[in-house]
Amino acid sequence: MKNHAKVLRISILAGSVYFIAIAAVHFLQIKIPGFYIYFDVPSSAYQDKIISLLAFGWGMAFFMSSQMISQGVIRPFGFMLLAGLFSIIALSVINLSTEIIQYNPYASVSIFWLETGGLLFYLLWLGWFYGQAIKD
Q: Domain tally for the chain?
C-alpha cells in the first residue's frame, strides 16, 4: 500500500472512531461540543437515539471503507465523500436557518459554523488523499 492510501486509511479509521464516539454520546445524551454539533439547542431523547443510530452507521461505513482500502479497493470510498459533501451542505442549510435561534435565543451560531468547518476540513483532507491514492 502506497503512502497516500496509508494516510487515507488511517484518516478514515480516525473518522470511524469519531462517529462511534458521536453515537455513544448521543445515545447517553451527554452534550459535548464537537460530538453534538448543536450542543446548546434542546433535543429530545428519541432524537438523540436516532442520531446515535445514524452516527453508528457512519462509523461502521468508515471502518468498512478503511478495511477495503487496506485490501487495495479505493474507488468506492468516493461514495462516502459524496455523502459527506451532502452532510456539509445540510449542516450549512441548518446553520443558515433561523429555527435554531427559536429553540435557544442564546445559541452561538458561530460555534456551529466552526464545527461544520472542521468537518469540511476533514472532508477536504480525505478528498485530497483519496485523489492521490487513486493516482498511485
A: 1
